[in-house]
Amino acid sequence: MQITLANPRGFCAGVHMAVDVVDQLLDAMSDDEKIYVFHEIVHNHHVVSRLRNRGAIFVESIDEIPNGAVVVFSAHGVSPAIRAQAEKRNLTAIDATCPLVTKVHAEAIRYDQRGWQILLIGHRDHQEVLGTAGEAPNNIQIVETPADIPNLQINDPDKLVYLTQTTLSTDDADIIISALKKSFPAIHAPPTDDICYATTNRQTAVRESASEVDLVLVVGSTNSSNSLRLTEIAETAGTPAFLIDDVSHLQDHWFANTNSVLITAGASAPEHLVTEIIEHLTEHYEGELTSHATFDEDMTFSVPKSLQTYLNTGNVTIKGQKQ
Questions:
Q1: pTM, 2 dp
Q2: Catalytic-role residue among 107, 128, 135, 232
Q3: How many domains would you assign to the chain?
Q4: Residue whose C-alpha is closest to residue 155's, from 120, 115, 183
Q5: Which of 37, 99, 116, 167 could join 226 in a cystine, given CB atoms 3.0 to 4.6 angstroms apart?
Q6: Helix (H) or strand (E) holding 15
Q7: What is the DSSP letter of 172?
Q8: Active site residue 128
Q9: Distances (CA, A) of 157 to 23, 74, 119, 174, 195
Q10: pLDDT tens-digit readout, 224-253
């Protein structure tokens, strides 16, 4: 069996930053101090489980957090209403929102202040979309599919802009954007593409290679939007694809007539999960890793200033000692 690795794959800069924030806090805090994370820091079960085992407490409501505690906002971002709840409970908020999500928030705020209506293309229940929509609740309408367009309430077609969730399929987004332009020819685009570089790069890698193999394996969790999109793109190319959390989810019957496999990973999936799958295929199916070009995305994000400020206040106990 020939095994090809898609490049790039796995952790993006935003995920690296967000996970690092929680790890640094856990390193700094003493055993009796608690770190709370609002929503999963990233959408990957293995990452969340590792941090939970280290002591992080994941919550879905600010009300679950004791007054005065430390809370980390996940990479997906939160609405102003959530920030206000945290402030009301006197929480120390460390913001691990991906800067590319923050960019979309800023666009929503800017167009809302102009009095424009905003059409937010994305999945209605996704945490990122909930956070962005919360920036301009009176002026944002969510568009999941072209079927939503006839139900939109538009006041002035000349003061209309679309924004997108950062982890959408570029193919799906293009279909919706084209439909919006057909219905509202004067609609404005954001200054720059909202779908993030990591999403685009991973989708492009799968789109270019999926048709050349018998099977595509996408490493990622089912609640990961960008991982789901990678699976869909492979299937659109005509190649069977499976989204798996780890090596334990592999099924023997997938490989009955499979001579070539492409492996990729969503932007929140750790690389060691890919390595374990390669080892399994090598051992059980005489898998051979073919040569592959590496793709250096050359993108990093610094940890947020709120973390640096908190760690430098002198109030943090490091394993029994004051910092």
A1: 0.92
A2: 128
A3: 3
A4: 115
A5: 167
A6: helix 13-28
A7: H
A8: yes
A9: 47, 34, 11, 20, 24
A10: 999 999 999 999 999 999 999 999 999 999
